[in-house]
Inverse folding.
């Protein structure tokens, strides 16, 4: 391939510098003469650098190097940003005494309707001192697909847009993997002894809800496992004590203790692949444990997934504060403490059709509430903040549609019929020799 080089015109005077294609080997990039009267260096398919009069101390050479095999540039800060080639600006024989006007082509993708098109790209330079990309004030031209700014740094420059394709693939993969988490049947201590006791434990068959009953340290224990899929709500007697085993999809800290109480019962969320351990507290307990699909279980899943998706999308975006776990927890706390979630009506789900609609609505509400809280908590403002909002808006608008269209997620992972486990003392007539409880 031919390599770009610059040709100095008119004796390297103040007239604009043009760039021509040459075939001889040369450094990857272009250069042009600039002086007190200014100049221009233009890279075909790349940036245009205009040097205003007075911006350099004297006659010199502005060198623009493109990243390539022999010229390594800093890595893109995020896998979800689309970029062209990064370019390094250097000045030989003179000092920079004023701004340069830098215009860089931008790669953008179709935006959601609610996104601000003027904020769909940012311009950044690499800061060697902080080892991070920094955003500068710039103006995006959606018609020319270029972004322009007055810059004062001689460093690596690049324009960033959102790569929604990469974000979509990552979200879809993560979502499938989340719902594909599985668990085997739980094992309880001394199950045989429990069967020989005066208690009977009855439950229907289910490939999704698995359980065991045993005796641990002289006290009965009942373990209930959600083998896969979306969370389910588990309801158990209020006199019993329950604890979750963190061996499945993990809920954020703010959701782990979320439960409903009433009518002498407790209700907690059980995510796919997880187990809840119930301690009746007496050797002769009586009670009913039920599991079912509910709106609050879908909402809990949506909030869990939303926090992770937002955090992944924002991580590394130039100009955005570092995403930290405690800040994400505060975002969730803000959402739970506010009124935003009241847009979602929590009800029991009776069919697969209701489940699919409830899942969509849960994600719409959860992602919308998270976007508002995230913007406030991370103090997103300025151009980088508006640029980040474009990504969050895409997640808020696109994820419910994406989830609705994800293939490979079995119906039984979305909806499971109600399941009941009854614990009661057996009547004397049933306690025949050799009878298995």
């Amino acid at each position: 391939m031919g390599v770009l080089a610059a040709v100095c015109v008119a004796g390297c005077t103040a007239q604009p510098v043009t760039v021509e294609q040459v075939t001889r080997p040369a450094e990857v990039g272009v250069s042009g003469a600039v002086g007190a009267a200014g100049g221009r260096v233009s890279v075909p398919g790349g940036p245009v650098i205009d040097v205003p009069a007075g911006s350099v101390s004297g006659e010199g050479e502005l060198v623009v190097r493109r990243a390539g095999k022999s010229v390594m540039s800093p890595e893109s800060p995020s896998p979800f940003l689309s970029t062209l080639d990064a370019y390094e600006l250097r000045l030989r024989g003179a000092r920079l005494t004023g701004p340069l006007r830098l215009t860089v082509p931008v790669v953008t993708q179709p935006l959601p309707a609610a996104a601000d098109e003027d904020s769909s790209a940012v311009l950044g330079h690499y800061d060697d001192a902080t080892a991070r990309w920094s955003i500068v004030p710039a103006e995006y031209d959606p018609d020319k697909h270029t972004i322009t700014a007055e810059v004062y740094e001689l460093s690596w420059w690049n324009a960033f847009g959102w790569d929604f394709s990469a974000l979509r693939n990552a979200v879809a993969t993560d979502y499938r993997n989340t719902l594909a988490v599985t668990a085997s049947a739980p094992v309880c201590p001394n199950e045989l002894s429990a069967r020989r006791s005066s208690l009977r434990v009855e439950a229907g068959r289910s490939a999704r809800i698995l359980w065991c009953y045993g005796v641990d340290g002289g006290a009965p224990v009942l373990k209930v496992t959600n083998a896969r899929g979306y969370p389910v709500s588990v309801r158990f007697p209020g006199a019993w004590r329950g604890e979750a085993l963190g061996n499945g999809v993990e809920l954020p800290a703010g959701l782990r203790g979320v439960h409903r109480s009433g009518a002498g019962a407790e209700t907690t969320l059980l995510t796919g692949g997880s187990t809840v351990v119930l301690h009746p507290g007496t050797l002769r307990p009586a009670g009913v444990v039920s599991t079912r699909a509910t709106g609050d279980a879908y909402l809990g899943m949506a909030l869990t997934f939303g926090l992770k998706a937002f955090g992944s999308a924002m991580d590394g975006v130039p100009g955005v504060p570092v995403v930290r776990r405690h800040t994400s927890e505060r975002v969730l706390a803000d959402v739970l403490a506010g009124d935003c979630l009241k847009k979602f009506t929590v009800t029991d789900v009776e069919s697969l059709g209701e489940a699919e609609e409830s899942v969509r609505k849960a994600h719409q509400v959860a992602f919308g509430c998270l976007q508002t809280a995230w913007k406030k908590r991370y103090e997103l403002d300025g151009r980088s903040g508006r640029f980040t909002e474009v990504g969050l808006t895409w997640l808020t608008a696109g994820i419910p549609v994406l989830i609705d269209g994800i293939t490979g997620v079995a119906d039984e992972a979305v909806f499971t019929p109600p399941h009941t486990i009854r614990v009661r003392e057996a009547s004397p007539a049933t306690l025949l020799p050799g009878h298995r409880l």
Remarks:
- The first helix runs from residue 164 to 179.
- The helical segments are 164-179, 191-195, 253-256, 295-314, 325-337, 352-377, 382-405, 411-414.
